[in-house]
Amino acid sequence: MATEGAFVSRTFIIDTITPYRTSKKPIVAVNYTYPGPLLEANENDTCVIRVINKLAQPTTIHWHGISHRGTPDMDGAVGATQCAIPPNAEMTYKFKAYPPGTAWYHGHFLGQTVDGLIGPFIIHPKVEPNQEYYDTERILMVADWYNDLARTTLLSWFLSSKNPEGIEPIPDAIVVNGKFSQSLFVQTSNAKRIRFRIINAAAFSMYTFSIDGLLLHITEVDQTPVKPYTVSSFVINAAQRVSCFVDLNELDQSFVPDDVPPTKSIYIRFKADRDMYPVDISSYIPPYATQRYPYPVFFNPLYLAILSLDSCNSLPTYPANQVITGSSNPDLGDRDANLLHARPFYQANNKIPDATHYLKLVITIHPDILNISRGYMNDVTYDHALDTTTNKSGKPKCLTSDKVPLLYQMATNPNELGIPSPIITSDSPLPAIQSDGHGHYLFPYGAVVDIVLENRDEGEHPFHSHGHNFWIISTSANPEAEQLYRGAYTKRDVVSVPGSGWAKIRLVTNNPGAWLFHCHIEWHMNAGLMVAFIVGPNELLAQGYTIKSTHKRFC
Ligand SMILES: [Cu+2]
């Protein structure tokens, strides 16, 4: 008999704070901390999170990585699963803590994620697969810091005709656990073997993570445990999570010069990938920049935290530019943000069904007729309001709307959404998933869909699926993975699509509802690099879903 999980009841007050002496920026925070408090649950616990909005704007919280089976209205995606919680109102999110692993929560409206609405969410599995390898654990939540607010300044500039090239707002700094470079001390507390849970909560940046002189043994990607996979550094893209453990007995201090005293601490490095910024960051001053904040004028892509080996918080004795990778063997660095060579821990149970359907999504970014740079999926830029300039096929029946979420439209008119059923096309022998021409794709319930993301943009884009995780089969960076790992692909909820390349994922549509699928770079999502997966409208009703009056009042 299955055991019922416990209840995890929390109250999240969303309000602004100004925690930094040197910045007046009002951060959007949960319970007056940045990042928000650690939310912890055991696998299959029922989380009951009362979210109280004390902001002057509407808000929601998205529980990133949670499958929401049977709770399609608890995903926090404005326009898809709910209307936003108005100021001075509250909503209680209730959902099962599943799947276990390193998840996180964040805003999903008005750029609030960029402005601070982030926090870690750890779900402990019934059996922790790699527990024998570590004695304690630490969370490192990395994010891009902007001196200006996304809501008032960055988004309006980015999506304006003043920025036809679509230059993304460049971060002003990097923060980890709310601390700026060289101010975060991580104590070992006498443990020799430490698990790090790295959560990339950045609006934009992809980072290379390493710790000087230590090997990193990766044990989890997103919420999938993997067999220990040893590297000297790895890449983590926006919204991805990676766990790795280190063993201080393996510390190779040969990088410490002979002429400095022995070091009692070493650097933990997050190095942002310079190539993704469309400007020369060493001299770039954004046009919206204000002089109000004393943070570095030019963005430094190298963030340093300090791992204090004796917990005394001394600085390393060696210069920070002494080493560039976490090991003397640079060949051990993995440059693949998908970490396809990490193998799932539960390989024997990892039965992967054959595909029954097919969907190709072509990613492009270009200016629209108003000279505003937009992102397109199959030539459609996603907007909460119908953009008639990009599609002349007429008014869609099923329309993303801040007033009538897609989920409510599914529940009200399950058979009249105006989206064609799958058809055979010349692209593939499998039936191809169709859309209404406005970014809404209708998936039969229980389909096994191979989705090919063809990226015609030069940038690498981390795509996230709400409500479903998926197997990553192969990418243009690792095309051989499809054959090499057949039958044992790894599940994630973010796939990093290489620039001018492609990624192939397989997704089982076993979760009726309206689920967003989007680039997790906040700027690109707001530029329209998003679609909605409409999964099994009739099954949604058959499972007993009804629109809650307590939710509908927000619309
Ligand atoms: Cu993107």
Automatic annotation (TrEMBL):
Pfam families: Cu-oxidase, Cu-oxidase_2, Cu-oxidase_3
Protein name according to UniProt: Laccase
Family: Belongs to the multicopper oxidase family.
Keywords noted in UniProt: Metal-binding, Oxidoreductase
Domain Plastocyanin-like residues, every copy: 17-126, 138-252, 436-538
SUPFAM superfamilies named among the record's database cross-references: Cupredoxins
PANTHER family per record: LACCASE, MULTI-COPPER OXIDASE
InterPro entries the UniProt entry points to: Cu-oxidase-like_N, Cu-oxidase_2nd, Cu-oxidase_C, Cu-oxidase_fam, Cu_oxidase_CS, Cu_oxidase_Cu_BS, Cupredoxin
Species per Swiss-Prot/TrEMBL record: Rotaria sordida
Source species, domain of life: Eukaryota
Keyword Amino-acid biosynthesis in annotation: no
CDD domains: CuRO_2_LCC_like (cd04205)
Keyword Cell inner membrane: no
GO molecular function: copper ion binding; oxidoreductase activity
